[in-house]
Amino acid sequence: MTLTGQHFIAGARSGDPADDFLAWDPRADGPLPTPFADGSEAEVAVAAEAAADAFVHYRRLSAETRAQFLEAIADEIEALGDALLNRAAQETALPAARLQGERGRTCGQLRAFAHWLREPLHPVLHDEALPERQPLPRPDLRLGQVPLGPVAVFGASNFPLAFSVAGGDTAAALAAGCPVIVKGHPAHPGTSELVASAITRAAARTDVPAGVFSLIQGRTPALSIALVRHPAIAAVGFTGSAAVGQSLAAEAAARPTPIPFFGELGAVNPQVILPGQLAAQPDQLAQMQAASMVMGQGQFCTSPGLVLLPDSDGADRYLASLAEALAEHNEGVMLTPGIARAYRSGADHLASQPGVTELARGRNDGHPNGAVPIVYQVNAADAINNPELFEEVFGPCVLVITGAQGEALGDLIAALPGQLTTTVHGNDADFARHSDLLETLAYTCGRLIANQMPTGVEVCAAQNHGGPWPASTAPQTTSVGGEAIQRFLRPLAYQNWPAAQLPESLR
């Protein structure tokens, strides 16, 4: 299909892109030809009001109808074929295999939510009436759930498909019965437009109200703020930087009627290496670390950016092997020029901290949007009192903290901010010896991993992708997996309600 650069608002195209912004090809370091319209507060209002109107009908549709809608979206995305993958590659510099996999994940999670609509993960809670109970009878009570209302979703820069227009937030909200307005990420507006066209066609195919979905493109903070502030918006799903996430979360909380803000803000995803495993497999551990940190140029929210390494047998070999592995990697092209600049700035800032030295770096090809993989190291004594060492550098950069054993390891774990994941590399004896210390890790992250790297998030019923602040703004929720739908529902108890008027699922 031919790109127009316009928004999709309630099934119709909107906006004049003539004088607004262009997409950027980071590999060629130049603009792509089609201009895109910057959204306005007026267009936000039209989309939000259409979503509010559609909500009245959409929330009453059966679970089966919503499941068919999600499946139709997946079918329409796949029908875009190579046109979608080629445009995404132009806008992100991501390789074809990665984008094919991401498209598969995107369609897979849409179909997974369709499955969970047909076969709910949670049982119906029903307390039957006890009219003879003394001193007071008990009424009949059934616990149901109702959707919150229209949801604003912000597309992520690093996942143009799986965390963007038809990504996990959109799929979960639509499954819950909530209309969605997506603020497209300006790093891949053409990809966003193509996916939006697929959702619009799917809505028409399944007789879903057009106002159930809108896409508004744009680059300005004012557009994002207008969307969060609109009184029709009932919740926000966000994946992105901590600075932008905190700003929008504050806007959501400051409204006359505050709304929930479900933000996933990133992490350094520490790797805790225990002595037994280190002595047995120093080379394997180093190679796993190098491969994971450079995967996708480290542009994953679960990229392993911190290693806690004990001074014990195998430590020197681990560091040498990690340096050797990293030296074999060339720089990679980042998603955008801005992300490349931020990476270099963040790496330089890390290098400037007291006690930090460079262990190794990859090859520098001089690409203007390139990111050279780097490993820094610092001693535990210098790291414990410096919280700046625990801040994410988005890209292929890792900090190894040496001397992480005994009391120092406990102090480091206590100093960690909230994480999406924490990995422990150890054998059975390691885990037994450190059981008390490792139990505390459950309170630092949303996912505990043993002897595997964190990069990659399985979409399944038991998954959790979130964590204590600042990994996410709502640590009791997940943005991936079957439980993600719960963010956009609220409980509603029906007491002595007429059976014929109960929701079908509660009858």
Automatic annotation (TrEMBL):
It comes from Ferrimonas balearica (strain DSM 9799 / CCM 4581 / KCTC 23876 / PAT). Residues 36-458 form the Aldehyde dehydrogenase domain. CDD domains: ALDH_KGSADH. It comes from the Bacteria. GO terms for molecular function: aldehyde dehydrogenase (NADP+) activity. Pfam families: Aldedh (PF00171). The lineage of its organism: Bacteria, Pseudomonadati, Pseudomonadota, Gammaproteobacteria, Alteromonadales. Its EC number is 1.2.1.4. This is Aldehyde Dehydrogenase. It is an enzyme of class 1 (oxidoreductase). Keywords: Oxidoreductase. Transmembrane segments: none annotated. PANTHER family: ALDEHYDE DEHYDROGENASE-RELATED, SUCCINATE-SEMIALDEHYDE DEHYDROGENASE, MITOCHONDRIAL.
